[in-house]
């Protein structure tokens, strides 16, 4: 894609069998609140003792968005934790041709393992296949390649689960309110991830017959579009009870529009887990009451998985000798009751 709008940063699940990261995978990011630490140290690896030296090539995104920057930082910080790990990191790119060239350079350097968050999973599938054929295992991070042969392990977020848990939270808050109304500020509609989030949200609301979704507006995961599209929603909808916004970065703009309109007659649920959203939830002095996580700590877990692959180890807490083929992270709901536990993982 040309400058992939911040939009396609999150991956599409192509139906690969997924293992919940909520299981006791100590080599991957834990969603257990009490284990939350700094963004890059939220979990211990399968074996923290130095082992065989491993060179990990990391090809990530251009850090033009808070979540994307957090992805890159989590990878760097996690690799620095291990004295035997060398991280060969490319300059992040949202241009598919540029990223293919960067990955081919890492292949030519004969790194031991590759961690790739592709600018476009489908477009970069061939370079993933090239790495695998060269004997370099690939950890496919979030935006999935079109072929499972292009990676050894996929790890990423759960877009359907985000919508489902957002809908459940809103449903529980409004379950006793007759004729409750909700609105949705989505991402870009031509992205499968946006459709998955909306589908999960709609499926959850089916369990609450008293709640009706009265409006939906698609934004573009930016502050500016969030503000503009939210202003349109507010103008069109003079009364509603809850708002689900797919992304905390576009949510900054949405909150500006809400403040400018002087509206406080509803509550808002965000998505992704930015620090600014968690700070607002903790302050509890505005409409934002919760956010549904899409954890950038997945990049730290990808480094753990790459290290385990390079050292021919499995995942701590599991009996298998090999790492899983697929890991889907859980989309926890952060509220004022648990925000302190998740704040260390909030991205800027």
UniProtKB/TrEMBL annotation:
Keywords: Signal. It is found in: Cell envelope. InterPro entries: Peripla_BP_I, SBP_2_dom, TAT_signal. PROSITE patterns: PROKAR_LIPOPROTEIN, TAT. Residues 1-23 form the signal peptide. The keyword Signal applies. The keyword Signal applies. Coiled coil: none annotated. Its main location: other. It comes from the Bacteria. GO terms for cellular component: cell envelope. Residues 56-312 form the Periplasmic binding protein domain. GO terms for molecular function: carbohydrate binding. Belongs to the bacterial solute-binding protein 2 family. This is Monosaccharide ABC transporter substrate-binding protein, CUT2 family. It comes from Actinacidiphila glaucinigra. The lineage of its organism: Bacteria, Bacillati, Actinomycetota, Actinomycetes, Kitasatosporales.
